[in-house]
Design goal:
It is a single chain. The protein is mostly beta strands. It is built from 8 helices and 35 strands.
Length: about 550
């Protein structure tokens, strides 16, 4: 390309002439491009056709930089090509910073399990588009597709396997030293996140928009999802100047790219908030209470889901559900420690899907297990576990550590929300439960601010001593869930005049005031936040 340079006197003469004639002008002189910014609601087409589809755009206010997966292009603000270079496939989204262009590059496979990607960042000189350096970013195990910069840090995004319900953001310093992975409770977005940008105090991430898939994610500086939109920003999102935003698009069978010039930041819907009421209750193999009595006590709490442990086999759970108006029950097949009637079950107001039971391997008594099921409450899909495990003084070889290492992490990735209910036989703060918290689970006791040192959910039958808080409700904190109310139900007793035949513990039952169990139920209202479901197709 040839650039004709004019002397200042000639330029001034042209300008004076055009001014007197009422005209306008623009001049290209090296890198000093002088032009009025594009009009809002207009469109800029990138000159030429390309071997790959448009995958990202950015601008320094003077030029627009385009990534067409196989070609990197620099144009003026009208779309006229200044420089075009061939690059390895797949060059993804890009960002401008410090006179350089940083491109998310994937030379392996997207959206696959770890081990098949080859992610890196290529750095180009913004003036010439000559390659300056490359940085590996191996943390993007599902593929590297998008990049943005703000406040001396880069954020990279990429692919997502089809069974994952959360997206991942990878934070790096200016030398691409890995800092932290952030998780967004977006639900499954097809092929993950495609594009990224930072503007107006928020991170913005573009996805393939559809009626069931958000096309844009709005994230605050604390990396919390604060809004979504169905509008498709999968081909590019960038800020041109203080007044305008660029939205990438493909046309001509994906061989050409263009940007729509928007006069304001995209409008997004706030995440949907759903309240779910849950409880966990070890019922002492039903020896101290009929299921109908348990149902009557729990009625006042208007529960959505209950996780029972040490529950009798057969219809015991369903009978409690009949009193509560909860029609859906699942009972596992593994009785704790091979004792009689020490099963785990889930009771729900809404249908239970994909029911299953998982063996928990650890030191201590065995077998131990956790039963699981999915249910949909107010449109929000939740994975619920009910469990009963042996406690341990140390994390090593504990059942809680086994769940933290072998079960819960996969559940957090593949479920929109995870809730764990049960008798864990350890108190808050003890090493086995810390293992759960370190992989992203959070206890209701943390949110509710209770001093659990003065509380107890279990009274030892023979000694009458309190064991402390050993029954728990955990939820995955990654989904921005929080407990807003809850506690221990201390009034779980049979009527004073009631009688019940039992083969043992009759004396203690009477002595302690005829409780329903040696455990006390724990309950909570959880506030779950999920990405808003698009109500209409993307434009």
């Amino acid at each position: 390309m040839v650039t004709i340079k004019y002397s200042p006197s000639i330029v001034l003469g042209f300008a004076l002439c055009l001014f007197l004639c009422g005209g306008t002008f623009s001049v290209t002189s090296g890198e000093n491009f002088i032009s009025s910014p594009p009009r809002a609601d207009s469109m800029i087409q990138c000159e030429g056709t390309y071997g790959g589809h448009l995958q990202g755009v950015d601008s320094d206010g003077r030029f627009i930089y385009w990534s067409h997966t196989m070609q990197l292009v620099k144009t003026d603000l009208t779309g006229k090509v200044k420089i075009r270079v061939d690059v390895p496939n797949h060059h993804g989204d890009l960002t401008y910073h410090d006179e350089k262009i940083f491109v998310a590059v994937e030379l392996g496979k997207f959206n696959q399990p770890p081990g098949e990607s080859a992610p890196s960042v290529y750095v180009y000189d913004a003036t010439s588009l000559s390659l300056l350096s490359k940085y590996p970013v191996p943390e993007l195990v599902h593929g590297c597709g998008g990049i943005a910069f703000h406040d001396n840090r880069f954020v990279l995004v990429g692919g997502l396997p089809s069974n994952h319900k959360k997206n991942y953001l990878f934070e790096y310093d200016t030398e691409f030293k890995f800092l932290k992975r952030h998780v967004l409770p977006t639900g499954q977005t097809r092929l993950g996140i495609q594009t990224a940008s930072y503007m107006n105090d928020h991170w913005w991430f573009g996805c393939y928009g559809s009626p069931a898939n958000p096309g844009l994610l709005k994230v605050n500086e604390d990396f919390q999802l604060v809004g979504t939109s169905p509008s498709d920003f999968s081909y590019g999102i960038a800020k041109l100047n203080s007044d305008t935003v660029l939205q990438g698009a493909c046309f001509d069978n994906n061989r050409r790219g263009r940007v729509h010039v928007l006069n304001q930041e995209p409008v997004t819907d706030a995440p949907v908030t759903t309240k779910v009421r849950v409880a966990a209750y070890n019922v002492l193999f039903g020896i101290w209470a009929r299921p109908e009595s348990v149902g009557e006590i729990l009625k006042a709490y208007n529960l959505d889901v209950i996780g029972f442990s040490e529950v009798p086999n057969g219809d015991w759970t369903a009978r409690a559900g009949k009193v509560l108006g909860m029609d859906y029950a699942y009972v596992g097949k593994t009785s704790s420690a091979h004792h009689k009637d020490k099963y785990k079950s889930i009771l729900s107001h809404t249908p239970l899907l994909n029911t299953h039971e998982i063996e928990v391997k650890s030191a201590g008594w065995s077998p131990a297990s956790m039963v699981g099921a999915e249910t949909i409450i107010n449109g929000v899909r939740i994975l619920v576990y009910s469990t009963h495990i042996p406690g341990r003084p140390a994390a090593e070889n504990s059942a809680a550590a086994f769940m933290a290492n072998s079960i819960i992490p996969d559940s957090i990735q593949t479920a929109n929300h995870v809730i764990l209910l049960g008798d864990l036989n350890n108190r808050p703060g003890e090493p086995p439960l810390v293992q759960l918290e370190e992989i992203g689970m959070r206890s209701i006791w943390d949110d509710l601010g209770f001093n659990t040192n003065h509380l107890s959910t279990h009274r030892h039958i023979e000694s009458g001593k309190e064991s402390g808080v050993i029954d728990h409700i955990y939820f995955d904190s990654i989904s921005n869930t929080r407990a807003i109310e809850g506690g221990i139900i201390y009034n779980a007793f049979n009527p004073p005049m009631s009688e019940k035949p039992m083969s043992r513990y009759k004396k203690e039952w009477t002595q302690y005031g005829k409780p329903l169990s040696d455990h006390r139920p724990v309950w909570a209202t959880l506030e779950l936040k999920s990405a808003a479901i698009p109500k209409k197709p993307a434009h």
